[in-house]
Amino acid sequence: MPNALHDMRNLLVTPPEMQAVDKDAAGSGIDSFSLMRSAGMAVSAAALRLFPSAARFVVFCGPGNNGGDGYVAAAALTASGANVALYALGDTGKLKGDAARAHAAYGREAISIELYEPQSQDVIIDALFGAGLARELPDQAQEIVGRVDQAGLPVVAVDLPSGIDGRTGEIRGASFTAVHTVTFMAAKPGHVLMPGRGRCGTLEVFDIGIPARLVAARAGGLGINVPAVWRQCAAGLDPATHKFKRGHLAVFSGGPTSTGAARLSAAAGLRAGAGLVTLASPTEAIPVNAAHLTAVMLKEIGNAADLAEWLKDSRLNAFVLGPGFGIGEKARDFALMLCERALVLDADGLTSFKERRSELFDRIAASGGQVVMTPHEGEFQRLFPEIAADGKLSKIEKAQAAAKLSHAVILSKGPDTVIAAPSGRAVVNVNAPPWLATAGSGDVLAGIIGAHLAQGMPAFEAAAAAAWRHGEAGRRTGRSATAEMLVENIAPLPEESAS
């Protein structure tokens, strides 16, 4: 796995992996209570930094080590002179290990959590349950969540807002909505997958002193999608290079009333750096497309025989099939012919294989091409129904399973877009603003991926870089974004110094 994913700033570690890291740290001689002290002190520092004038800090402590972090934070806040009230979930006499030690060190009474009554100036520190929660939040805790929500009080979460599953990002019955979350050593999938991501507020990853090598040794192939993930593969994508060295991208158009989506993809491909872009159009759509194209070239491709003849030109090295193309046999025939090249299969191209997916997957496996599939949630359900229906899997795990089954790179679209390779490597894109979900946005994304493939980027890196550039285009465009505006705001790839 590339070292970029072992940059602690970009790493995603699942709760089981983090538990293994904690055990490894203890086994290496690191005092686990010192780690808890570092975590609790980081939480208290964040609370004081964000709310220096708080009338009262209310600390909710759970029955495990997350609660132990809360006891340390409460002690530090008290020592700083802050007004602190601590409420515990469960019998504090049953605390064990470091949590019991932290409770003893706090040295003050812990009030039963059911007695908490919100005050208007309270700042909540949520140390009930961390990222390891994989069951419904206890009823007592859910009631407290309701009280805090109703009062509109700010919450600082320890590790992850209680009620969010750290592996999937799902809400387990109810959860706090934090203004700030302090987690330790590395982010967890629940921090970046929806709906959990929307309840974390700003995320602070604090190094509590576990050596990075121990974290890296347990981490799988998961990360946050940042330029460090794909920059090395993009190093040669210089827009100043001659057009014939930057690849030739072909985008397939639908019929005369369905041409706009393909033109958006083609325009995005040209803007994103492909040296040449050709729109392959059926005969009946030639006049419509010709009236709208300038720098993008036009080629009449009416059937499979036309395509076979065109493919004799080896300079055609990347293709986008699906946007506005139409569902059916023609889409299937074209896609199967293109699998030996670099191909982005999107929209109608995906849906056309709903009943014949094995044919597509077998062809991809045998072809050795570079294929990227870009399903939104509905298309994913149609093409991978058994994976989509498995409620135990996170969005990351679903994308990984689909990539393994299809032998293609899967870009599973949404506010938490996941890019997964058949090898299991995966990244989650986090820079896309909500307004990016506009008509035609996916067509623009497909064109950017196509441009990267045309320039020789491997499929995984091509898709990851495209998702990131697509998100940045949305940010540059602003809330009034339309697909055409996104094309105009596709920025150059970031400089070497970007992270």
UniProtKB/TrEMBL annotation:
**Where does the YjeF C-terminal domain lie?**
226-497
The note describing how and how many cofactors are bound reads: Binds 1 potassium ion per subunit.
Pfam families, per database record = Carb_kinase, YjeF_N
Identify the InterPro entries for this entry.
Carbohydrate_kinase_pred_CS, CARKD, Nnr, Ribokinase-like, YjeF_N_dom, YjeF_N_dom_sf
Q: Which residues bind AMP?
A: 413-417, 442
Known EC number(s)?
4.2.1.136, 5.1.99.6
Q: Which residues bind K(+)?
A: 66, 126, 162
Which cofactors does this gene product need? Mg(2+); K(+)
Q: Which residues form the YjeF N-terminal domain?
A: 18-216
Q: Which CDD domains match?
A: YXKO-related (cd01171)
**Which residues bind (6S)-NADPHX per the record?**
65-69, 130-136, 159, 261, 324, 376, 443
Q: Which keywords does this chain's UniProt record carry?
A: ATP-binding, Isomerase, Lyase, Metal-binding, Multifunctional enzyme, NAD, NADP, Nucleotide-binding, Potassium
HAMAP family xrefs: NADHX_dehydratase, NADHX_epimerase
Q: How does it assemble?
A: Homotetramer.
Q: Which family does it belong to?
A: In the N-terminal section; belongs to the NnrE/AIBP family. In the C-terminal section; belongs to the NnrD/CARKD family.
Q: Per its database record, what is this protein's job?
A: Catalyzes the dehydration of the S-form of NAD(P)HX at the expense of ADP, which is converted to AMP. Together with NAD(P)HX epimerase, which catalyzes the epimerization of the S- and R-forms, the enzyme allows the repair of both epimers of NAD(P)HX, a damaged form of NAD(P)H that is a result of enzymatic or heat-dependent hydration. Bifunctional enzyme that catalyzes the epimerization of the S- and R-forms of NAD(P)HX and the dehydration of the S-form of NAD(P)HX at the expense of ADP, which is converted to AMP. This allows the repair of both epimers of NAD(P)HX, a damaged form of NAD(P)H that is a result of enzymatic or heat-dependent hydration.
* Name recorded for this polypeptide: Bifunctional NAD(P)H-hydrate repair enzyme
Report the source organism.
Sinorhizobium kostiense
Gene that this sequence comes from: nnrE
